[in-house]
Design a protein that fits this description.
two-stranded antiparallel ribbon; NADH Oxidase; 8 helices; alpha+beta; binds 3-iodo-tyrosine
Length: 238
């Protein structure tokens, strides 16, 4: 690391030149192959469920790293890649996160959330108890960077941060599912405590905790979660 770099420095190129490259990879698929692949992908994605009960079975760090590398390929505003993934395997660290999250969630479920919100959560069956935060082998805390700092110590603005981080998170969940893992998108409310526990600057906004691992033997999913809107409801063709 150079003098001005620290663990929060963006490695963004400092020149602003527009340079063109030939398209680095091109798929050459027939319509039939595209239809088959899209069907296969849909079938694969249909087997994804948000899981709340985890097995303590370990998961190699390499799998997590590969999936985060895939998430890092997501498109982003001005290609600023305004995300950071804090990954936690250490049991004592997970315990601290669980205690802080449960503390916030206790107040949330005891009335900080509106009745309408708590009603909407009824069919999902969630509550303030979050054992998965210590049982699952990995937690990935996703941070959104509203601003970044370059190698010269110059602060710059990021664009479409929510959209960019949302897309990267989708890539990550898909990559983890494709690798054979289950996830839970957990959003303790509020979650500012995660900055301190993950050693991230105040300019970063914790977006969610992704709980990652294998489902417990007796894991269940809420029946409500298996209801998905039909295509005709989510798509209009012009
Ligand atoms: N943060 C709480 C509440 C919660 C909110 C929504 I919206 C959900 O889809 C699920 C839970 C929790 O994580 O339990």
């Amino acid at each position: 690391m150079s003098e001005n770099e620290n663990k929060y420095t963006s490695s963004i190129p400092l020149d602003n030149d527009y340079v063109e490259l030939p398209i680095p990879h091109r798929w050459e698929l027939s319509d039939e192959e595209m239809i088959r692949r899209s069907e296969e992908f849909y079938e694969m994605m249909k087997t994804r469920h948000t899981v709340r009960e985890y097995s303590p079975r370990a998961v190699p760090r390499e799998v997590i790293e590969n999936c985060i590398k895939a998430a890092g390929l997501a498109p982003s505003g001005a290609n600023h890649q305004p995300w950071h993934f804090a990954v936690i395997e250490d049991p004592a660290h997970k315990q601290k996160i669980r205690e802080a999250a449960e503390e916030e969630e206790k107040t949330f479920y005891a009335g900080r959330a509106s009745d309408e919100w708590l009603n909407a959560l009824e069919p999902i069956g969630t509550n303030e108890s979050k054992p998965h935060l210590t049982v699952a082998p990995w937690l990935i805390v996703i941070f959104a960077q509203r601003t970044s700092t370059d190698r010269n110590g110059r602060k710059f603005k990021n664009y479409y941060v929510n959209e960019s981080v949302g897309i990267a998170t989708g890539f990550l969940i898909t990559a983890l599912h494709h690798a054979g893992l289950s996830t839970l998108t957990h959003t303790p409310n509020p979650m500012k405590f995660l900055n301190e526990l993950c050693d991230r600057p105040a300019s970063e906004k914790p977006e969610m905790i992704l709980v990652v691992g294998h489902p417990a033997e007796n894991a269940t999913v809420p029946a409500h979660a298996k209801w998905k809107k039909p295509l005709k409801e989510i798509m209009t063709v012009f």
